[in-house]
Amino acid sequence: MEISARIGSRKTLLTILGSAAFMVLLQAYLVAPLVPVLTHDFQSTDAITGLAVPAYTIPYGLSTLFYGPLSDRLGRKPVLLTLLGLMALSMFLIALSPTIEIFLLLRVVTGITTGGIVPISIALFGDIYPFAERGKPLGVLYGAMAGGMTFGSTLGAYLNPLIGWRSEFVTTGGLCLILFLWAASEHRNFPAKSPAGTTLKEVFSNAKALMQRRQSRSLYAYVFLNGVFHSGVFAWLGYFFKLKFNLDDQGIGLALLGYGVPGMLLGISIGNAADKYGRQRLIPIGLALGALSVCLLAFKLPLLAAAAAVTVLSLGYDMTQPLFAGMVTSLVDHSKRGQAVGLSACMLFLGYGTGALVFQWFMTWGLDMALIVFAIFEALLFLFALRLFKFSWS
């Protein structure tokens, strides 16, 4: 059921939850550009340090399945406030990591503790906003996530020579702590009630029922496989610019500056275009852009052209995954929508973790070959999408 809230309370919650989504994605994307320096500082290998991406994304994806039902039973407020506090604590602990093994373990813990923040925020918007008014808060949330991606991928590498990666995590932890204290001070603005609880058995039975439908399987498969593609490439972009152009940390940060910018600037426009022209038309274009950008990266490009290709890659993401999320909400009625979204988040972040590992495996054939294989993979998704989404979705 929907819970009424004062306009002022809703604006406060929107700001808090948008800030939380920003911080979740910022700290998530902070790590990939730091792989070269982490390898050096921990006297490890790129193969081991590269596990920092799946070590976070796979636990994150699995945990999203359970936080929705948990917040149904215990309430959105206590679960969300707890997770915000744990996110801050995990940042401080990561900064103290003495070995790569401890660093990876703490990334696993961080994935688990942050996995519920965005899904619970989406569920909370469903609690306090009527259906006809949910577009704006969700737009703000996804825009904040795109901003977190942009600043995380850029600042991670750029600030390291200035303050060091440990200080980056301390600073991020400080910002998360401020956010937690702010949310706790505004706890009265959180609705006190939540929808009826869902049992663990119902979580799996509902997921099973969803996956029995061909339309659902196709959509969730695309969420997963497109996540494999984008994460696999992004996780190694820092290594790419280091190897191809011998950039230092600040140079890598600047080269990645365009990643996430399309989502920040064009997110609302892409959503409006999807409503006007149909998601089944925009999604294949996004898949094609992703394939083209990665194919170009495999060839000898000038530095500025490679940075532009990274921006186009980001645009390909913004024209696919957010639109998939909108389609997921049409799979079920409102009473099961939260679980459908949670399952989508699970598939997406499992794809993120899998992609980094798969790309690393293909790198045994060389970086350029890995890029070409992933470009071909995304091109095949584009070709299948032309037919699948034309005939399966209105």
From TrEMBL:
Residue span(s) of domain Major facilitator superfamily (MFS) profile: 13-393
Main location: membrane
Transmembrane helix as UniProt keyword: yes
Pfam family, any one: MFS_1
Official protein name in the record: MFS transporter
Subcellular compartments: Cell membrane
PANTHER family: CHLORAMPHENICOL EFFLUX PUMP RV0191, PURINE EFFLUX PUMP PBUE
Record carries keyword Endoplasmic reticulum: no
Keywords noted in UniProt: Cell membrane, Membrane, Transmembrane, Transmembrane helix
Organism: Chitinophaga filiformis
Gene3D superfamilies per record: MFS general substrate transporter like domains
Transmembrane intervals: 12-35, 47-67, 79-96, 102-126, 138-159, 165-184, 219-239, 251-270, 282-299, 340-363, 369-389
Membrane topology note: Multi-pass membrane protein
